[in-house]
Amino acid sequence: MAISRELAAHAVRTRFEDLPAAAVQAVKRSLVDALGVALAGGALGQATPAFLDLARVSGSGPCKIIGFSLHAAPAVAALVNGAMSHALDYEDTHDAGLVHPNGTALPAALAIAQIRGDVTGAEFIAAMAVGADLTCRLGMCMGNVDTPRGWAIRPMLGTYGATAAAGKLLGLDEAQLVEAFALAFTQATCSAGFFGYAPSHMREVRDAFGAQAAVTAALLAQRGVQCYDQPIEGKHGLYALYAGGEYDPARLVAGLGFVFEGANLSFKPWPSCRGTHPFVEAALNLRARHGFAASDIEQVAVDVSDMFGVLCEPFAQKCRPGTANDAKFSIPFTTATALVHGRLGLADFLPGALNDAQVAGVAQRIRCTVRSPAGLDDALRGRLRVRLRDGRELAEEVLQPLGDPARPMSDAALMEKFVDCARYAARPMGDAQAQRAAEAIGRLETAADLSALML
Fold first, then answer.
1. In sequence order, which residues have a C-beta less than 8 Å from that of residue 311 and are 6 or more positions away?
2. Is the peptide bond before 321 cis (omega within 30 degrees of 0)?
3. Mind listing the pLDDT tens digit for each residue in 191-224?
């Protein structure tokens, strides 16, 4: 069976009853995390107001915009909710595939579920499980080159997982879902050019386009529109066109139906790019252990993987980022903030915090060394050295940042994160209200409807 067809068949036939308990629990944790992040993203995202305005001028529809009283047409709602879901770069991530599977899948699945109106909690969990699994697998099998041929391919991969989730809820059969993959593929694109363009909003809103493409593709495939029968493995498919044909097909389908990669997600303790987390954690550990002040720091050195060397360049910009988005993708800024203040939270990316003179001063004393390429397994290893003015040399190495499945965030920590995010929502939630909302999501598999997700 062709790979596209095999993946479509897996998505179509998987039922809630087929999911391992760990996969069910992982989806519920991801939903709590993703909805909380979207609530905050709706208020704090730099580009979010433009998407909300688009929803308003596009007219009403059956699908809710997360955190607002607005309703919109399915593809528009997926677009807007997708923009909010990644706006803060705070949602879960799959470290082995370097993808954010739920940031795209959740907006698409929510839109389709609201069209139907009769989706149960268990059915929604099954759709999210197959969607996240597919995105993670696509990332894991593509190799170590992050931007082949000038494309930022990983942001595009969530489009396929979102299509699987949306198509499953829409009741597509195998052939229709393959066509939906292809129809989504025709809409998915992401030039790597935004990496070097400081004003770009693309880092924030990239999941918007994948979610919109998934909903559009699933609805068109349901109505008989055909596109291409090998959108993943074909000679004109995803990997051939964007990655020069380099991918591992065996890894793509290994354990399919038994291993759900969504159970291997990392949850972010800090609202910044995952590549900054080894250094944030090391900085927080050293500061807590040794109790030094910002004025005590003479120099800082970070040892960074080649995958995340871009988070140190251009150095002057990374020391004094002009936007929250740029700051989240800066090892100097995030590390300096942790060293100076002993924390890194949403408040540290508000406009006033970007002009913190102490943080800028420490950031300018950071020296970045980028290691030779060593593969994805080495991507998140980081070493931090701090030299103090009294002559002491302090060092900390982080092999797997906090939040990794091997070092998971507790349910209590995820609840605290949700409550904190809900405080920043456009319609802020009180702590007790937010806690009740998160607890309801945690019981989703028993729910007859999706009212717990309509925040």
1. 273, 275, 276, 304, 318, 329, 330, 331
2. no
3. 989 887 878 899 899 999 999 999 999 999 999 9
Domains and CATH numbers, the chain: 3-269+423-453 (1.10.4100.10), 274-398 (3.30.1330.120)
Question: Tell me: the pLDDT tens digits for 79-94?
Answer: 999 999 999 999 999 9
For the stretch 424-443, what's the b/e string if a residue is b when 16 or more beta carbons lie within 10 angstroms of its beta carbon? bbbeebeeeebbebbebbbe
The residues, ordered by sequence, that sit 6+ positions from 403 with a Cβ below 8 Å of its Cβ are 266, 267, 268, 269, 277, 409
Q: Is the pLDDT confidence value at 117 over 80?
A: yes
User: Is the separation of the CB atoms in 262 and 23 below 8 Å?
Assistant: yes
Cα(438)–Cα(31) distance, integer angstroms = 9
Separation CA 3–CA 232 (nearest Å):
7
CA–CA separation, 426 and 431 (whole Å): 15
Rounded alpha-carbon distances, angstroms, from residue 112 to 9, 12, 32, 36, 329: 19, 15, 19, 20, 33
